[in-house]
Specification:
17% strand; eight-stranded parallel beta barrel; globular; binds SN-glycerol-3-phosphate
């Protein structure tokens, strides 16, 4: 079965990545300067560890820290040389960023345009060749706007104009935001390990399992299903 939606972990916490990627259908990891500053002292070692944990079949998105297009491009080239074909450089959607996106795409480097807040920013990133645009859902909600609605508008715009750039929605605080974005055209989401668990959890699922176990044990004690087969 082909997976239409990609799910990324938005963290640099190696233990969280190891645990969640061992259970959930995770397609890769995204980081940003804030995430790296929060989670690690040795950025190089941490990124190498993440790269090893996720392996060659999953994707690693790392953001530039430079101010100019040429510097962003230089950072992207250096990171691609280290992290390989499944590396995506995250480039902020600024004037220098647009220029850097073009430079990176001309050098065959995968690009995620990040810190996107409007459909027109997304369109400019796409026109410059970005593979993904990353709208920040919760941050949009926090400025009394509607992150899911922004994704819906980007999706419609890309569809009407036959733009192939995909939408990687980021900045989530709850399950409803994640559901809203994938239901409105996001091709990928990047979420925390905690939120990933929240996507799965339901108290009635837990209760149903408790009821199954209790009904079974009343009749069959500690025997298991395969003891009868
Ligand atoms: O990676 C960018 C984005 O996920 C930021 O999320 O939670 O800091 O708004 P947040």
């Amino acid at each position: 079965m082909s997976k239409l939606i990609k799910i990324f972990l938005d963290t640099a916490n190696v233990e969280v990545i190891r645990e969640i990627a061992g259970i959930y259908p995770i397609d890769g990891v995204t980081t940003n300067p804030s995430v790296l500053a929060k989670e690690c002292d040795n950025v190089g070692d941490t990124l190498m560890s993440i790269s090893k944990i996720i392996g060659e079949d999953r994707f690693l998105h790392v953001q530039t820290t430079a101010a100019t297009a040429q510097e962003m491009f230089a950072q992207a080239k250096k990171m691609k040389a280290v992290f390989g074909a499944n590396f995506y450089v995250k480039i902020p959607i600024t004037e220098q960023g647009l220029k850097a996106i073009t430079l990176c795409k001309n050098a065959d480097i995968n690009v995620t345009a990040t810190a996107v807040f409007t459909p027109m920013q997304a369109l400019l990133a796409a026109q410059s060749g970005a593979d993904y645009v990353a709208p920040y859902i919760n941050r949009i909600d926090n400025i009394v706007s509607d992150g899911v609605d922004v994704v819906a508008h980007i999706s419609k715009l890309f569809s009407v104009q036959d733009v192939k750039t995909r939408i990687l929605a980021a900045s989530f605080k709850n399950v409803q935001q994640v559901y809203g974005t994938v239901a409105n055209g996001a091709h990928a989401v990047t979420i925390s390990g905690e939120l990933c668990k929240e996507l799965l959890f339901h108290p009635y699922t837990e209760k149903s399992l408790d009821d199954f176990r209790s009904d079974w044990e009343k009749k069959f004690g500690k025997r298991e299903i395969t003891d009868f087969i």
